[in-house]
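Hey, weird one. I pasted the ATP-binding cassette domain-containing protein sequence into the form twice and got a warning about non-standard characters only the second time. First submission, copied straight from the form history:
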Amino acid sequence: MSEPVLQVSDLEVHYGLRRKRHQALTGVSLQVGPGEAVGLIGETGSGKSTLARSVLGLVSPSQGRILIDGEDVTGYSQRQWRAFRRRGVVQYVFQDPLRSLDPDLTIQESLLEPLLLRGDSRSSALSLVQEQLARVNLDAELLPRRPAELSGGQRQRVAVARALVVEPRLIILDEPVSALDAANRVQVLQIIKQLRDSGTSLIFISHDLGSVAGVADRVAVLYQGALVEQGATATVLRQPQHAYTQLLLGSVPTLHAAPATRAERQALRSRLEEVPA
């Protein structure tokens, strides 16, 4: 059996001072295999972004282990993390590309930057930039432009291309389509599916269950900082076991049924008060 690209074990994260500590993650364990797409769902404040930031070394866990591509990064210093990030093993795609792309750099400069920092020659870096730009269905004529000169969908595809240029083992996508209109959402989701099919491991963070269903092989559900349910996407979405997952799914209208009634949602919330996270 292939070694997981990401292995998170019993992860706990606390914020704040001793007297006012908030536990953001509680005993979270999660694996992502080679070429696997895992959807991470949960409401705002459930711990999705905290988990992603922990994997990126931006948050220090209070307990637990994080292995990336077989390398234990749990206790890395800032200097070790900086060197690790420059290798491009893990990449992150933000929700808002207009804020994540440097407004003063051209698209070409933004895409070249991680490759030149890694030590690639300029000629080989340019070749990789053009290759990955084509992979996200963008024309090379966009390279001299700046982010403000592109549409929202184009900017998000540039952000995906920037993640791809260093040929990462894992890409974390944080609400990558939530700020896009319907047409651009479809385009970006199609590119994400192609990434999954090409063997890139993905963590897809989203509150949009429809997007998760179309992309993820497995789904993990976070509730109040705890991983309350995970499994094959079809199984979790069709036969949710935890009351919180049922509440999430009950709030989503489908072609065949209306969303759960107010009384039904209240009944599920009452169950949540009785069921430990």
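That's the output from the first submission. The warning seems to come from a hidden character in my clipboard, not from the data itself. The chain has a mean pLDDT of 87.
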